[in-house]
Amino acid sequence: MSEFLQQLVNGVTWGSVYALIALGYTMVYGILRLINFAHGDVYMLGAFIGLYASGWFHAAENPNPLKALLVLLTSMLLSAGIGMVIERLAYKPVRKSPRLSALITAIGVSLLLENGGLLLFGADPKFFPQIIPAHNISLGMGVVISNQQVIVLAVSLALMIGLRTLVLHTKVGKAMQAVSHNHMAASLMGISVDSIITFTFMIGSALAAAAGVLVALQSPKIEPLMGIMPGLKAFVAAVLGGIGNIPGAVVGGLVMGVAEVMVTGYLSSTYRDAIAFVLLIVILLVRPAGIFGKAVTEKV
Amino acid sequence: MKKLLSPLIVLVLLVGLNAVLPSVLNPYLLQVLMLIGINIILAVSLNLVNGFTGQFSIGHAGFMAVGAYGSAMFTLTQGVPMLAKLTAMGIPAEIAQGALLLVALVLGGLLAALFGYLVGLPSLRLRGDYLAIVTLGFGEIIRVIILNVDAIGGARGLPGIPKWADFFWVFLMVAVVITLARNLAHSTHGRALFAIRDDEIAAEALGVDTTQYKVLAFVLGAFFAGVAGGLFAHFLSYLNPSTFQFTKSIEIIAMVVLGGMGSISGSVLAAIVLTLLPELLRTAGALRMVIYSLMLITLMIVRPQGLLGTAEISLDLMLERVGLKKKPTSPARGGAR
To answer: Chain B residue closest to A100 (CA)?
Structure first.
C-alpha cells in the first residue's frame, strides 16, 4: 500500500510537468488548429536558459528560494520571447496555408531548435545546478516526498490557477476564447487576432519553460534532445483530455504521468514509452474526442 | 503487345543498369541511390493514404518496421536454408535468391498490410488529428514491442540478414508502386479516394463506401511500406529499432507534403530531394541539420502547396509543351485532380 501511495505521489508530480507542457499544446491548438511540434523543444530551451540564468544569478552558490524563483522567471520570460519570434517568423506566414504545410513548418522549427541546440550547447548532457538542495519530507505510512517535488507541485498548481484566471476573467483571456471560436468574428469585434495568437504562443512557451526548469531541478541532466519524448507525450496527454480543452490538458497530463510511473514501478521501464500510446488508443476508441472533448457533428 | 512494351523496356533497363551501376558508381553513391529508391516507395505509399484519401497518418515507420522485421525473419529462418536446397537442386543461385527475396518482401508487405487493416479500422471513428495521433501511437508501440522481443534482437538489433536486395529489386518495386498509384489515380477506386479527401460527406452521399475505401488506402499504403522495409532490411543487412522512430515517419510525411499532396511525381521528386539534401550538406558539418531544417521551413513558407501542388510531371505533357505531341481531346486527361 505504501509503495502504491509512493508511486502515486511520484506519478502526480511527473504528471503535473506533463500537464504544464500539454497546456501549451492545447492552447495553441485551440486557437490555430496547429499541432506545434516545436513545443517540446521550447521546454528543452527553458531548461537550458534556466541553466544559464543560474550562472548569471550565482543561484547555486548559496541557494535561496528567491534566486531560484528569479531563475524560473527569467527562463519563462526569455522563452516567451522565443515563442513570439517562432510564431512571427515561421507560423504566421503559413497561417492561411493548408494545415499539413503548417504542420511540416512546425516540424521544421522543431528540427531547427534541436539541431541548433546541439550546435550551441553540444551533444553531451549538461548538469543543472542544485539551485534548491534536495531533502526528503516524510508523509507517514512510509511515503516520502522531496522538497523539490513539493516545489514542482506548488509551482505547477500556481501556474495552472494563474492560467485559469487569465483565460476566464481577464479581457485578454476572453479575447483568446473569442479567437479560438472564430477568427473572423473575433476580428469584427475589434480583437487584434494577430496579437492574441502571439500572446497565446508566449504564454504556452512560458509554461513549457517552467516545466523545463522544474524537471531539470529534479533530474539535473539536460541535453538538446530532451524535449522530444516529453513533448510527444504531453501532446498525447492533450489529446487524451480533449485537445483545445484547458482542464482536459491538466487531467490528461496527470493520467499520463501516473500511468507511466505505475508501469515503470510495477511492470518494466522498457514498456514505459508504450503505455502512453496504449492508453491513448484505448481512450480514443471509447471517447473519440478525448475525455473532455465535445464530439462535433460535421454539418454540410 | 503495346501494353507489354513499356514494362519490358523498364525490365531491360533495370537489368542493364543493375549490371553497369556497381562498376560505375562508388559504393557510397550506390547506397544513396538505393536509399532514394526505398524512400520513393515509402513516400508514394504514404501518399496513397495522406494525399489521395486525405487520412492523416503519421505512423508510416511502424508499417515499415513490421515489413522489415517480418521479411528479415522469414529470410533468416526459412530463406537461407531454402536457398541451399534450391541451389542443390540445380537452380541458379541468382534466380533462387531473387525468388526468395520476392517471397520475403511479399510476406513482409502482407504482415504490414494486416497491421494497416488493424489501424485503418479505428479511422472509421476518428478524424483528423485524433487519427494522426493514433497512427503515431501505433508506430511507437510497434517500436517498443520490437525493442522488448529478444527473439528478433531487441535493442541490440537484428544482424546478419543476407544482402539480397540490389538496384534491380529496389527499383523494380519503385516501378511497381508508381505504376499502381498512377493506375489507381485514374480508376474508379482512385476517384472514390479523391472524393473522400475533398469532402467525405459529399462522397458518402454519392454512394462511395467511405469505410471500405479508407481501410483500402491504409492497407495498400501499409503493404508498400512493408515492402520498402523488407528492401531496407535486405539492403543494409542489419536492423535496429531506433531506425523506425517517430522521426522516420516525420521524414516520410515531409516528403509527401513537400512534393504536393496527391501528386505521385511530386512524392518521387521530394523523396529524391529530401534524401539528397542531407547528403549534399555533409560538407557543412555541424551546420548540416540546421540548414536542412531552415530549408524545410522556407520551402513550406514559399510553396505551401508543395513543389508540384497536385500536378503531375508526365512525358505526354512535356511532349505537348514542346509541340511534339497533339493534345488529346478527351477530357479525362490529367493527373490526380
So the answer is: B257
| Residue ranges, chain B, pLDDT below 50 | 330-337
CA–CA min distance B257, chain A (Å)? 7
Positive or negative, the CA dihedral B253, B145, B153, A229 is positive
Using CB atoms, which residue from B133, B292, B304 is nearest to A239? Answer: B133
> How far, in Å, are A165, A227, B162 from residue A53 at the CA level?
28, 19, 53
Rounded to 5°, angle at Cα B335 from B331 and B337: 80
pLDDT of residue B123: 65
Q: Where are the alpha helices (DSSP H) in A33-121?
A: 39-56, 65-86, 99-121
ipTM over 0.85: no
Residue found by looking up cell 550551441 in the block: A120
Q: What's the grid cell of residue B97?
A: 535468391
Cell 531563475 belongs to A71
Instruction: Mention every residue, 6+ apart, whose C-beta is less than 8 A from residue A251.
Output: A240, A241, A291, A292
Main-chain phi, psi angles of A137, to 5 degrees: -115, 130
CB B61 within 8 A of CB B249: yes
Q: What CATH topology corresponds to A2-286?
A: ABC transporter involved in vitamin B12 uptake, BtuC (1.10.3470)
